[in-house]
Amino acid sequence: MKRLLVVVLLAVGTTMFAQEPAEHEGKAEEATGEIEVSDSLKWANFALLAIGLGYMLAKLLPKTFADRTATIQKDIKEAQRLKADAEKRAAEVEAKVAALGADIEKFRVEAAQEMAAEGDRIRQDTAAQIKRVEEQASLEIETAGKLARRELTRHAAELALKMAEDRVRARLDSSTESALVDKFVAELGRQGSKN
Question: Is residue 116 part of a domain?
Fold first, then answer.
C-alpha cells in the first residue's frame, strides 16, 4: 500500500512537470504571468512531492531501522554467544594442556619407577645367575680336583710300582731268580697236594 502511494505521488509529480511545457507553448503572449504561476506550481508540486516522500520515509524508515537494529542486536548476541563458547572451549583446551603437563610428569615418574623395578629385577636375576654359575663352577672345580687327585694317585701308584719293579730287577740276578722260581713251584706243589 505504501509503495503504491509512493508510485502515485511520483507519477502525479512527473505528469505535472511534463504538462507545464505544453501549456507554455500555446500561450506565448502571456508568458510573463504564466511563468510566475508556473514557477509557483512547480514549487507546490515539489513541496507536495517532498511532503509525500518525507511522510513515506517517516513511515518506512523507523520500521526498517528498527528491523535492522533488531537484526544487528540478534547478530551481536549470537556473536557474544559464539565468543563465550569459543572462550569456554579455549579454557577447556588450556586446562587439558595444563593437565597434559601433569600427565607427562606422572608418566615420567611411573616410567622411572618401572625402570627402577625392572633394574632391581634384572639385578636379582643376575645375582641368581651368578650364584648358579658359581655353584656350578665350584662343583666342576671339586669334580676336576677329585679327578686330578685320582689321576695323581694312579700316576703315583704306577710310578711306585715302576720304581719297585726297577729296584727288584736291580737286585735280582739269575741265581736269585731261579731260587724264587723254585720256591714258587714248590709252594704250588704243596698247595696242589692239599687240595
Answer: yes
Q: Is 92 among the domain residues? A: yes
Range of the domain at 117: 2-131
How far lies 121's CA from each of 80, 108, 117, 195, in Å?
Answer: 60, 20, 6, 79
- The three cell numbers locating residue 7: 508510485
**Does residue 112 lie within any of the structural domains?**
yes
pLDDT of residue 181: 82
Distance between CA atoms of residues 85 and 77, nearest Å? 12
In a domain? residue 39: yes
d(CA 84, CA 76): 12
Q: Summarize pLDDT for 16-30 with one digit per residue, the tens.
A: 555 544 444 444 445
- CA torsion angle 146 152 157 160 (round to 10): -150
> What's the total number of domains in the chain?
1
- Give every residue of the chain whose pLDDT is below 50, as ranges: 20-29, 31
The SS3 assignment for 172 reads coil
| Cα 182-185-190 angle, rounded to 5 deg | 125
pTM of the model: 0.35
**What is each CA distance from 9 to 46, 47, 48, 54, 153, in whole angstroms?**
11, 11, 8, 12, 147
Which tens digit of pLDDT belongs to each residue from 99-127?
A: 888 888 889 999 999 999 999 999 999 99
pLDDT for 29 equals 44
27: Cβ contacts below 8 Å, ≥ 6 apart: 34
